[in-house]
Design a protein that fits this description.
The protein has helices at 32-48, 64-76, 97-108, 130-138, and strands at 23-27, 51-59, 83-90, 112-116, 142-146. It is α/β, with parallel strands linked by helices.
Length: 147
């Protein structure tokens, strides 16, 4: 006796456009954690038709952030997603990266923030960095932390 079973390929749910996640902010610092967050946001953008804004908040005169934006551009290249890149210089005495990110959230009309759990800090112990923690606690919109 032969039993034939027909398997149908079922596509995962995908949307051409969503009104939930129209604009996604992805703060990056060039760390692998922030680039994984960008990968996650790129995947969301393909599924929901979202626009991504990549933000690098850097202390004045620091050349590393140019490298961070270039890493992000290379990572997003050829993905067919609408991406805007922003670099904001901050005064390290009066501002922090988290305050810059929160300011961008308030003024940019974002629906979600996707960010890495840890940045370039040398402290190994905490599971979540101080910048990510401050953004999670203070943000009025959805925050996704990527490890």
């Amino acid at each position: 006796m032969v039993i034939e079973m027909a398997y149908e390929y079922v596509r995962e749910p995908s949307y051409e456009i969503s009104f939930m996640y129209r604009r996604i902010l992805v703060p990056i610092d060039g760390s692998e954690s922030s680039l994984r967050a960008l990968d996650f946001a790129l995947d969301l953008s393909k599924r929901f038709g979202s626009k991504i804004v990549v933000l690098n908040a850097k202390p004045r005169g620091l050349a590393l952030s140019d490298e961070a934006i270039e890493k992000a551009r290379r990572r997003a290249e050829g993905r067919g997603v609408s991406i805007e890149y922003k670099v904001k210089e901050i005064d390290p005495i009066n501002e922090s990266p988290s305050s810059c990110i929160l300011s961008e959230i308030m003024s940019g009309g974002y629906d979600m923030v996707v960010m890495g759990a840890r940045g370039r800090s040398l402290i190994i112990e905490p599971n979540i960095g101080s910048t990510a923690l401050e953004v999670v606690v203070s943000s009025p919109i959805t925050i996704v932390i990527v490890r």
